[in-house]
Write a structure and sequence with these properties.
Number of helices: 12
Structural class: alpha/beta
Largest sheet: 8 strands, mixed
CATH class: Alpha Beta
Strand order of the largest sheet: 6-5-4-3-2-1-7-8
Bound molecules: iron/sulfur cluster
CATH topology: TIM Barrel
Shape: globular
Number of domains: 1
Helix content: 25-40%
Distance between the termini: 24 Å
Radius of gyration: 20 Å
């Protein structure tokens, strides 16, 4: 993330807007992964489920996504599902106009089918492929998006692998190392991210990591990042798994990302998981990456998170004033006075962990 992007994001926060948008562009998915939160009864807050929504297709979907983007003006758009590749033709139509708007676009998929032949070369387009462990476990959980099919479908692409670590994986010592040994030598793999399985409050599932397994995952990842440069997670980010945000109000990711479901209207709260996620057990890599930035102390004194909270409060008040005045309030953008030269500032991007 460059300084100019940070300043742009900060400007949106001060205006009470979300820098990042995530859209479930379809309710359909050919997979039936155990523990998938998208089809959980609580995902949309109870009442209706993802399958009940009227999703769009064809030109109506393309136009709908562009209308939402033009209205909310995110800096970063994450396209998820269901599986967004179910709407492959629509993606092919919407990607060029989205990129032309200067937005960073991320597609999160199971890679159950092939992708656009030009996608690997498009600037600001990122494809994230979800792979849940080594072949025997992955294929059992994620058929028809099996290892064989993924390997065929990512040929010629440049993708990020995202693996959600489960309790079952952590019961086998050396599992994460074997995973990295298999995937990182391949030229199609640009980088690898890991999340930890995040349950809903009250869940009891074998996927949930015990406290000991969580700690071992942290220790293993800190070691493995030294051996596998494609494991694109800093030690600071990995250590954040040991102290996740206490609540959605403390979660910078939840506070800076708006998530819309497949009708392009229903908001998913408090974060992309929906329902009542167990923040104390959160393992979302995007949340940890932003928590790592929030924990950083400017000048060794003032945590970035403190500045973020103050900025978010200002933004909230400004958004309220705008809504009270029916959108007529035209207060000046406090960042217009800043002239900032772009400079390298690490490589943190927004991430999401489904499909
Ligand atoms: S991303 Fe994690 S910490 Fe943030 S609100 Fe969701 S469950 Fe809680
Ligand atoms: S986790 Fe993703 S790929 Fe699996 S069923 Fe859910 S939406 Fe589909």
């Amino acid at each position: 993330m460059h300084t100019s992007q940070i300043v742009q994001a900060w400007g949106k926060i001060l205006r009470g807007e979300y820098p990042s948008l995530s859209i479930e562009i379809t309710k359909e998915c050919p997979l039936k992964c155990p523990g998938c939160y998208a089809y959980d009864a609580a995902h949309l807050g109870g009442g209706q489920t993802l399958r009940d929504l009227n999703d769009r297709r064809g030109q109506s979907l393309v136009d709908g996504v562009l209308e939402v983007v033009d209205r909310l003006k995110p800096l970063h758009l994450s396209i998820v599902g269901g599986d967004p590749l179910v709407r492959y033709r629509e993606l092919e139509s919407m990607i060029p106009p989205l990129l032309a708007r200067g937005i960073h676009v991320q597609i999160v998929t199971s890679a159950f089918r092939t992708m656009g032949p030009t996608w690997a070369n498009l600037e600001r387009l990122y494809v994230v492929v979800s792979i849940d462990g080594l072949q025997p476990e992955h294929d059992a959980r994620r058929a028809p998006a099996t290892y064989d099919r993924i390997l065929r479908n990512i040929t010629g692409q440049r993708v990020t692998i995202h693996c959600t670590i489960t309790g079952q994986m952590m019961k086998r010592p050396g599992y994460l190392g074997e995973f990295l040994k298999f995937w990182t030598p391949r030229p199609e793999i640009k980088k690898v991210w890991f999340s930890l399985f995040t349950p809903q409050v009250g869940d009891k599932m074998p996927e949930i990591l015990s406290a000991g397994e969580r700690q071992r995952a942290i220790t293993d990842l800190i070691q493995l990042r030294k051996q596998f440069p494609k494991l694109d997670m800093s030690e600071t980010v990995i250590r954040q798994f040991g102290s996740p945000p206490k609540s959605p109000q403390d979660c910078v990711f939840a506070q800076t990302t708006q998530t819309l479901s497949a009708d392009l209207e229903t908001k998913i709260t408090p974060c992309q998981f929906g329902g009542n996620p167990d923040c104390a057990s959160c393992g979302c890599v995007a949340s940890m990456a932003l928590a790592g930035i929030a924990a950083h102390r400017l000048g060794g004194i003032l945590p970035v998170g403190t500045i973020f909270k103050a900025s978010a409060k200002i933004g909230e008040n400004r958004a309220k004033k705008r809504s009270d005045s029916g959108g007529k309030s035209q207060s000046k953008d406090p960042l217009q006075i800043l002239q900032v030269k772009e400079a390298g500032c690490g490589s943190v991007e927004q991430r999401t962990n489904r499909p």
